[in-house]
């Protein structure tokens, strides 16, 4: 059992061991339930797309979508002028 204190703003700190056990990270959300005088904190599932964040970053700036679109538009203008 852990003992925690509620701050003046109503905030609590979840002990590190519990955060590690449940894989809780900054930005994760918890459901708070009141059940017969017991406060229950339950982790909410993360959005599946958040797992992909940063996974497909390219180290080559030329591969970025903006650069590709600019090249495509430039080529289109060249073809239209002919």
Descriptive tags:
SpoVT / AbrB like domain protein, two-stranded antiparallel ribbon, alpha+beta, 2 strands, Repressor-like_regulatory
Brief summary of the model shown:
The protein has 82 residues and is α+β, with helices and mostly antiparallel strands.
Question: Would you give an account of this structure?
Answer:
The protein has 82 residues and is α+β, with helices and mostly antiparallel strands. It has a domain at 1-46: Ribbon (Pemi-like Protein 1, Chain: D). The chain is built from two helices and two strands, in the order H-E-E-H. The chain has helices spanning 16-22, 65-81, and strands at 30-35, 38-43. Strands 1-2 form a two-stranded antiparallel ribbon. Strand 1 (30-35) and strand 2 form a beta hairpin. The longest helix is centred in the C-terminal third of the chain and has 17 residues, at 65-81. The termini are far apart. Residues 63-82 are annotated as: Disordered.
